[in-house]
């Protein structure tokens, strides 16, 4: 097989599970790791989307938004390692390469045509809104599977991510009353 062909055929998800002493049934660990791996892919994607906004925003509010978008990127970046390591704590493989993230992320592609501050704010808030929903859904799903500590861990991630969403949305035009 040609080297190039072998590279493109690499799996985007490794489903191998290791045995350990964590007091959960094996099938629960497998399912919880599946949910977490999907969020790991989304977190890696979300981080680079925030960095894209940080690097590429233009206009009068450049510097302020440059900092705001970097703050968002930092919060998301801090979530990646604990998600990956919670997967390995339960016996799973953390599917966290950029290629795996690109294949498995549930975050829509960033609006790369964005130039101005408001355009990037909307683009990033849209993506972050989906990420926050993903984290909430993950927490609910993991709770239903019977792994309360991991569900609680995801709840904390929701609070952190939604705080960033609030920072972004607060810049957008006021008056969006329910
Ligand atoms: Fe920077």
Describe the structure.
- This protein has 178 residues and is mainly α.
- It has one domain (24-172): Up-down Bundle (Ferritin).
- Helices cover 69% and strands 0% of the residues.
- The chain is built from six helices and no strands.
- It is globular.
- The chain starts with a helix and ends in a 9-residue tail after the last helix.
- Bound molecules: fe (ii) ion (FE2).
- Residues 54, 70 line the site of fe (ii) ion.
Parts with pLDDT < 50 across at least 5 consecutive residues: none
Amount of beta strand: under 5%
- The first-level CATH class name: Mainly Alpha
How many alpha or pi helices?
6
Which class of secondary structure composition applies to the elements?
mainly alpha
Mean pLDDT figure: 95
Q: Radius of gyration over alpha carbons?
A: 18 Å
The 3D shape can be described as globular
Q: What is this structure's SSE topology?
A:
Layout: H1 3-8, H2 26-56, H3 62-89, H4 98-104, H5 117-145, H6 148-169
Helix pairs in contact: 2-3, 2-4, 2-5, 3-6, 5-6
The structure holds fe (ii) ion.
List keywords for this structure.
mainly alpha, binds fe (ii) ion, Ferritin, 178 residues, globular
What's a concise summary of this model?
With 178 residues, this protein is mostly helical. α2 packs across α4, α2 packs antiparallel against α5 and α3 runs antiparallel to α6.
